[in-house]
Design goal:
- The structure is a single chain.
- This protein is α+β, with helices and mostly antiparallel strands.
- Helices cover about 35% and strands about 25% of the residues.
- The protein has helices at about 10-25, 40-45, 65-75, 90-100, 110-115, 115-125, 140-150, 175-195, 250-265, 300-305, 310-315, 395-410, 420-430, 430-435, 440-450; strands at about 5-10, 30-35, 50, 80, 100-105, 155-160, 170, 200, 210-215, 220-235, 235-245, 270-280, 285-290, 335-340, 345, 350, 355, 360, 365-370, 380, 385-395, 410-415.
- α4 packs antiparallel against α5, α7 (about 140-150) crosses α8 (about 175-195) and α12 (about 395-410) packs antiparallel against α13.
- The longest helix has 19 residues, at about 175-195.
- It is globular and about 60 Å long.
- The relative contact order is 0.12.
- It binds adenosine-5'-diphosphate.
- Adenosine-5'-diphosphate (ADP) binds near residues 203, 278, 289 and 439.
- It holds the Pfam family Biotin_carb_N.
- This is ATP-grasp domain-containing protein.
- Keywords: ATP-binding, Biotin, Ligase, Nucleotide-binding.
- InterPro entries: ATP-grasp (IPR011761), BC-like_N (IPR005481), Biotin_carboxylase_complex (IPR050856), Biotin_carboxylation_dom (IPR011764), Biotin_COase_C (IPR005482), CPAse_ATP-bd (IPR005479), PreATP-grasp_dom_sf (IPR016185), Rudment_hybrid_motif (IPR011054).
- It comes from Membranihabitans marinus.
């Protein structure tokens, strides 16, 4: 079925980015917006915009029933959830389908299967995808936690099975710490994710976070669009991503891509998905989790493969086969993304809300800007403080780094603190330039006391 009108159940840069593809495909769009988001460009750029009164996520972008009702009233035939909010909510995906609309994403069953970290690990095991040493069942008591941790060997990570967004995990280095933290992690899991189930896995000391972008269609075809290195993180959340990974061997890439596809096949997955791995210095890689949506960092993959992944999502949702086969996909050059957050990185990346007084970006066709805000607009504390993303593309990694550095030098954002100075620091640091950096990059910087 041809999709003619899409409701975008999201805000900011991703809503705008989805509108861009829809416009190219001559698809009408319906934006929804909470009170503080009324001035944002996506509201004006959509074919129609509908106000969702309120300032909290629960009353607005998380109110699935209200959103479905708006979609029906406005004559939409599909809903694109973007990332975050309802994008990995299996109940919402099911409710969209039950209301006769198309959910632009995987099936509710796939979302459900991968949304729970223990269940996902079991599927990975069945698909012969290597796991981080640990257990594939929840821990039921402190005694069990202690004996599992001893047999795995400290340090371990105590993780919420229903966790996400870098939250609900704690590194534990001794029996003493386990005794202190066990109840606390469980109750945090319960209050943040409504599920107190926790499990234990080995804490890997300095791996890279490398993830495979994959795509499936409803005919059972699969491709992978290579990897992204997302090791530059703070609070277990990504800030800078690049594709391809600077240090991965092509044999590892192939193995990782095949492992990701095996996992997708295990659940009959279709649409965009990302299989995340931790990769150690010997290039052994271990399954972390699968994200059943479009990732924030998808543009680096688009730039090195010359694809439009939102377009692919829409085509697959219409029941069409994948636009390209594995043989038709090649890596073209190098891409780096810097997430532009309204945050003060010298104060541990604390939010820096306020009015963006000036925002001056030099014109450069090789720098892609996915921006959710314009100068004069206000970044509030109600929602995520991401203003947008800056993505550079060049023939090779060295040139890409240099281009981003030169571009950032001529950039001006005033009124709020942003991650631009952090980006400049990282791009000029020898560890990043060598490509041989790990997820501990920022924690190590903190130790050096910037
Ligand atoms: P979330 O679902 O909250 O994003 P993930 O399981 O994907 O959580 O992990 C997020 C980040 O936490 C990873 O990219 C990595 O930096 C760190 N991490 C997770 N598990 C481990 C582990 N076993 N060892 C070391 N770091 C880990």
């Amino acid at each position: 079925m041809k999709i003619k009108k899409i409701l975008i159940a999201n805000r900011g840069e991703i809503a705008r980015r989805i509108i861009r593809t829809c416009t190219k495909m001559a698809i009408e769009t319906i934006a929804i917006y909470a009170d503080p988001d009324e001035p944002l460009p996506y509201v004006r750029e959509a074919s129609t915009s509908v106000h969702l009164p309120g300032t909290s996520s629960t009353n607005t972008y998380l109110d699935g029933q209200k959103i479905i009702r708006i979609a029906q009233d406005q004559g939409a035939d599909a809903i694109h959830p973007g990332y975050g909010f309802l994008s990995e909510n299996a109940e919402f995906a099911k409710a969209v389908e039950d209301s006769g609309l198309i959910f632009i994403g995987p099936s509710p069953e796939s979302i459900e299967a991968m949304g729970h970290k223990i269940r996902a690990k079991k599927l990975a095991l069945a698909a012969n995808v290597p796991l981080i040493p640990g257990n594939t069942s929840p821990v039921q008591s402190l005694d069990q936690a202690l004996s599992e941790a001893q047999s795995i060997g400290y340090p371990v990570l105590l993780k919420a099975a229903a966790g996400g967004g870098g939250k609900g995990m704690r590194t534990i280095r001794s029996d003493k710490e386990m005794k202190e933290m066990y109840d606390r992690v469980k109750s945090e899991a319960k209050s943040s994710f409504g599920d107190e189930e926790v499990f234990i896995e080995k804490y890997l000391e300095d791996p890279k976070h490398v993830e495979i972008q994959l795509f499936g269609d409803q005919q059972g075809n699969y491709v992978h669009l290579f990897e992204r290195d997302c090791s530059i993180q703070r609070r277990h959340q990504k800030v800078i991503e690049e594709a391809p990974c600077a240090t991965i061997r092509s044999s590892t890439r192939q193995k990782m891509g095949k492992a990701a596809i095996r996992l997708a096949q295990e659940v009959g997955y279709f649409s965009s998905g990302t299989v995340e791995f931790l990769m150690d210095r010997d290039q052994n890689f271990y399954f972390l989790e699968m994200n059943t949506r479009l990732q924030v960092e998808h543009p680096v993959t688009e730039l090195i493969t010359g694809t439009d992944l939102v377009k692919w999502q829409i085509l697959v949702a219409e029941g069409k086969p994948l636009p390209r086969s594995q043989d038709e996909l090649r890596i073209d050059g190098h891409a780096i993304e810097l997430r532009l957050y309204a945050e003060d990185y010298l104060d541990n990346f604390s939010p820096s809300p306020g009015r963006i007084d000036h925002m001056r970006f030099p014109e450069d066709p090789s720098i892609r800007l996915d921006m959710g805000f314009e100068a004069g607009q206000e970044v509030t504390l109600y929602f995520d403080p991401m203003i947008g993303k800056i993505i550079g593309h060049a023939e090779d990694r060295e040139r890409c780094i240099r281009k981003m550095q030169e571009w950032l030098k001529k950039t001006l954002v005033t009124g709020i603190d942003t991650t631009i100075p952090f980006g400049q620091y990282v791009l000029s640091s020898p560890d990043f330039q060598s490509g041989d950096y790990a997820i501990t990059y920022y924690a190590d910087l903190e130790q050096e006391d910037l």
